[in-house]
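[Protein data]
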Amino acid sequence: CPLGGDSMSLDTVGMCMSYLENIVVQYYRPSLSVKRFRYVLRYTYRSVYDDQPNAHKKFMEKLDNCIRNHDKEIEKMCNFHHQGFVDAITELLKVRTDAEKLKVQVTDTNRRFQDAGKEVVVQTEDIIRCRIQQRNITTVVEKLQLCLPVLEMYTKLKEQMSAKRYYSALKTMEQLENVYFPRVSQYRFCQLMIENLPKLREDIKEISMSDLKDFLESIRKHSNKIGEAAMKQAQQQKTFSVALQKQNNVKFGRHMYINDRITEERNEIVLKHTFEEEDENEEEVLTVQELVDFSPVYRCLHIYSALGDEETFENYYRKQRKKQARLVLQPQSNMHETVDGYRRYFTQIVGFFVVEDHILHVTQGLVTRAYTDELWNMALSKIIAVLRAHSSYCTDPDLVLELKNLIVIFADTLQGYGFPVNRLFDLLFEIRDQYNETLLKKWATVFRDIFEEDNYSPIPITNEEEYKIVISKFPFQDPDLEKQSFPKKFPMSQSVPHIYIQVKEFIYASLKFSESLHRSSTEIDDMLRKSTNLLLTRTLNSCLLNLIRKPHIGLTELVQIIINTTHLEQACKYLEDFITNITNISQETVHTTRLYGLSTFKDARHAAEGEIYTKLNQKIDEFVQLADYDWTMSEPDGRASGYLMDLINFLRSIFQVFTHLPGKVAQTACMSACQHLSTSLMQMLLDSELKQISMGAIQQFNLDVIQCELFASSEPVPGFQGDTLQLAFIDLRQLLDLFMVWDWSTYLADYGQPASKYLRVNPNTALTLLEKMKDTSKKNNIFAQFRKNDRDKQKLIETVMKQLRSLVNGMSQHT
């Protein structure tokens, strides 16, 4: 026992406690916890040291006793087990030798085993390492099998982006996102790819939109070629249809122009030329698909559809196309100057709508029929306004006709693509009126040139060939003229057949505009007749009136003009037959318009007749102005004045020319000339500037009037009854007789009586002339002798003048 001595230090106590604990735990109370035992010991020690002063000593004594008792028990136990222990030791000693041998053998075996296992260990380590590598490789392969398709698809995406296969790239992106990325989402490279896809989508949108912009710019530049190709195709189809229709007409014996071989030949030449040109250019006509690459639109549409942003693309496309439509519909300021300007305008519009129609049929939803209809209606209103404005500046009928042909081809082309064009054909009727106006202006110039070049003399012909040439140009029929031998003359001048030909040419020109307007023969007939009426009643009539009023046109020219209008008037029925042959519309149809040529030429003839009367009177005035009377002469010359004889000779020659005029015209002209001459002579006597007239002057004046009366009685123009023409000078005759006979008593006595001898003598006229003679008598010797010899006659003059004044005053009061 480690406890010794009488007193114990704390260390000793501690050691004892530990020793006791071990004993208790090992031998007595194995199940008693150490903490519990320590607690009991501590409590015991405390009670030993704290309760009584001698408790420690007693405790130690008891403890010693306890120890001794334990020692005895131990000793007994050892004695009890000693023999077994010795036997065990002996056995152990015996085994020791065997154990050493075994140890040597084990050691040797271990050594040999170790030596033999070194290579196995090395190989085992290699195998382990290989197995680890194999496992790692297997893991890597498995992971790579997951990653490689992703990388391959992403590489494919990059290649598609490089090759600009953007729609395929978008599909690849969808596969990556939906199939491949979920398998490798834990890897960082996958996250980088996922983050890069939105940027790629935006790049694709931007690139496709850029391609679309380039496409829109391209079709804007190529709209002219596209429209030109489309219009050329439409024109070829139309030409083929016309040729087919013509063949059918020939087959069934129907000709639109029945009696007009010239027009047929002209149409055949034009048609042949058209077919030759078509054959030459057949390979050059390309379709819209060949002219334009629409793949950018398809790609962009598919891309935006794949991105779910199709509406944005549609809105952008339509907005840009509307802007382009406004640019296309904006014409150049000088478009009306040439047909190329109109052609370029039409081809651009056709190209625009051909592209829209193609987009409508090859895509779904990008362009709708409602959208194209709205766009076309907007464009059609603008087109009509532009054509109406610019066509108003056209003054050349050929340009207007080419414009009409362009509009027809333009309308037919767009109609073939399903666009309504009725308003364009309505516009053509407005342009037709303008075309007629330009034709009228052109033909006004033609008519003026014909009138300027005409010599206004009958057409001379010297042989049968010349006669047939004139007859082929103008429908003239006169059996008497045919019977005459050559040389002979047609009654009309050169302007008549020329005008007739030009009227027919006008009808041809007017007919050209009516072609391809999809109108019936009745409507075309009505158009032709109305335009021809305008030509006759307005243009030709105006030219004739201007011609008649020109100052250099003399009486002979006016007479020929009247003759010409008469023959033109007779030719109107042939013009009606000419129109009937063109349109196959009978003149007996209820609504057929009649030509107003009869009234036109009658008006022109009446104007010419009036101008003849005017110019004849002007010529008479020119001769009368040459009169040089000596109003104070005492005796007449005994013969008529020279100016008057010249005037009468002139009138005789003029009235001989009038024999070709209708009798009434010549009679009216003759009567008008005589009346005007009589009036001029009367005014000469009563001129206020003439202050004095002698009786000799009256007698000389009477000789001139006698010559006028002789001229009237000679019947310069046949057809007058009795002395009708002489009555033009009755006022002068009665006035001169009154003064020559000096028969005032009879005049005053019979004044106002229907049977008066001097019924046509006005008191005022007589008074005026008598006053002029009274002033002369003061200086005239004859009257001086007369006053001396016969003062009663002087008083009679005074009395007559008073009575005449009273008559004049009575007339004024009565008025």
In short: The beta strands are 459-461, 488-490. Residues 438-457+493-609 form one domain. The CA atoms of residues 333 and 390 lie 9 Å apart.
